[in-house]
Specification:
Blueprint lengths: L3 E6 L18 E7 L10 E3 L14 H7 L6 H11 L40 E2 L9 E5 L5 H16 L8 H12 L4 E2 L5 E5 L8 H19 L8 E2 L55 H15 L4 H5 L20 H12 L20 H20 L10 H4 L2 E5 L5 E5 L6 H4 L1 E3 L39 E2 L4 E6 L5 H5 L4 E11 L4 E7 L18 E7 L8 E9 L1 H6 L7 E10 L5 E2 L1 E6 L4
Parallel strand pairs: 2-3, 4-10, 5-8, 5-11
Antiparallel strand pairs: 1-2, 6-7, 9-10, 12-19, 13-18, 14-17, 14-20, 15-16, 15-18
Helix pairs in contact: 5-9, 8-9
Amino acid sequence: MSCLLLTSSFTTTTHSKPNTFKTRTNKNRGLRVSCNKTPTNDDNQIILPETQKLIMPNVVDRRDLLVGLGGLCTAGNLSSLSSALAIPISTPDDITSKCQDASIKSKGDIKRTLKCCPPSLGKTVKPFEFPKGETVRMRWPAHEGTNEQVDKYKKAIQAMRALPDDHPHSFKQQASIHCAYCNGGYTQVVGNGFPDIKIDVHNSWLFFPFHRWYLYFYERILGKLIDDPTFALPYWNWDDPSGMQIPKMFLFDENENNPLYDDFRDKRHQPPQLVNLALKPNQDKDLSNDQEKCNLFTVYRDLVSNANNEIDFFGGKYVAGAGPNDPKPSTGSVERSSHTAVHLWVGDSSLPNREDMGNFYSAGYDPLFYVHHANVDRMWKLWKDLRPGENVEPTDNDWLNASYVFYDENQDVVRVYNKDSVDIRKLKFDYAKSDINKVAWRKSRPRRRDTNEQAPSLPVVKSVNEETFPVKLDKILKYRVTRPKRTNDQKAADCKELLSINGIKYRGDKFVKFDVFVNDKVNTKDDKLPTPCDPEYAGGFAQVPHCESVMFMVSAARFGLDELLEDTNTKGEEYVVVALVPRTGTEDLTVGEIKIELCPVV
C-alpha cells in the first residue's frame, strides 16, 4: 500500500493536562504515514499498525496526530494505531448535545425510556476538587441497617423521586446515567476523533472507576436532598452468608409506598431465596450443593484465584479508537462473574428485556442497583487489602487519565479522572465491617478433590492445536492444552499460570453465559460435569444485554490455574483438559483462541 503525505501545522504548549509534550513550536512538517508492515529509515514516517514501532516528531501531540489520521488506511489500522498512541477515553464536556438516545434491540415493549441524555443547565465544566473538612461517610451493610439509617435512606430516595424528571438530580436522570454510558449514548468524538465509535464503560478497565464515580455523586446528591452531609449509602453484602438475600427494606410492603421497591424484579427470588453468584440460567440454585458455600467459593475465585494482577481484576486496556468489535485483553474477574450474576438474578426473567436489573439500559431504575454496585466497589477495596502494595490499580496513563463528566450535588458539571478515584480516603467514604481478615470468603477456597473420587488419568480429548479457530460454542467443547514449561527465572519469580480464552465474539443484545472447567477426572466416562461449587470450576463468562440490534462484541477472559491444579491433584500433568460449557445465549458465540500463559504481559 502506498504512503500518504500528511502535512499539518502541529502546535503544542506547556500546560497542566497530562500526556502533552512540553515543547512549543509552530513549524510545518511533512509527515508520511504508511500502512505497510515494513518500517523504513524515514524519521518522519509512522508505521501502521503491525510493527507499532511508532516514530514521530517530538513536537507532535498524539491527540492531534490521531485525529488527523481519520480516514487513512482501514478502521482496523486506526484501532491498532490508537492503541499504540494510547489516547485515554474521554466523555465530551457537553454531555447533553453530544449525547444520543440509547440503543437496544427491543424484544416486545420496553419498560423504560431510551431518552437517556441529561438536561443542560448551560454550565461550563469544572475540574473536580476533593472534599475538604468533611466527616467520612461510612457505607453500611443493607441487611444490618439501623432504623435511623433505613429511614434516612428511604427519605432521600423519596425526595429524589419527587423531583421533576428534567432535574439533573431526579430519580429518572440518575437512572439515565447508566443508560447513556452503557447503551451507546456517547461516542469518542470530542478529543478522541472517533465520532462513529461509541463509548462503553463495561468489559474493560473502565468498569470499576466509572461506577465508583457514579456512586460517589449519587450518594452526595441524596445527602444534599435531605440536608445530611454525613449520609452514606448502604451496600448489599452478598459476599457474606447473612447478607445473601435481597435486603428486607427493598421489599414490597402493603402498609407503605416503599420508595426502595421495584416491581420489575424476578418474583422467584424473594427471601428466603439466596442469591446465586455462579448463576446458571433457569435454575434458582444448585440443588446438589450448599448455595451459601458455593457463593463464597465464587467470591474467593473473583478476588483471589482469578485476580492475580490489575488486568485480571480490572479488565483489559481500552483506549480511544477501540470499538465493540475490537478485542479487549479481558473482562475483569468480578465484572464477568458475581457482578453480572446479581444483575441477571434480580432482573425480571419473565420480561423479554429482563428489566430492570437484567438490562443495562434500565438497571439504574431499581434502587437495588446502587447498593449492588456499592458492594462491587467494596470488592475493589477488599482486593487491595488482600495484598497491600501488590494489588494496585493500573499505572498506565491511559487508565489514569480516562475521564467522565457528571452533575455533582450542587448541580455543577464536573470532569473526573480515574486517577482521582483510587484513594477513597480522599473521597471521604469507606465501608463498615470490611476487615479483610474477617470477611467470610477469605478462607473459602474450594475443597481439594479426594483422589479416591478421581480416575487415574485425564480423559483423552482433541488437542487445541488440532482445532480450526474460531470455533462456535453451540455445544460442550473439550480440548487438551499443553502447559508451558517454567524457566528458572520464572520459577524464582513465582510466575502465575493463566488460562486465556481469547476472541470471545458474542451478541451484545443477548444474555450470554458459559462456564469453564479444567481437569475433570471424576466424570470421565459420561456427559456429567462438575458444578461451580467444585474445585474443577475455573470460572464463567457472563454478559448483561446492552446494545442495539444484532451487534457482535469481542472480549476475553483469564482464569488462574495455580490453585485449581493443586486442588484437582493435577499439578504434575504436562497438559490440562479444558471444557467450555454453554449455558445460554451462546448459539452465535465463537471463541478465537485457548492458551495457557506464564507471567503474561499485562
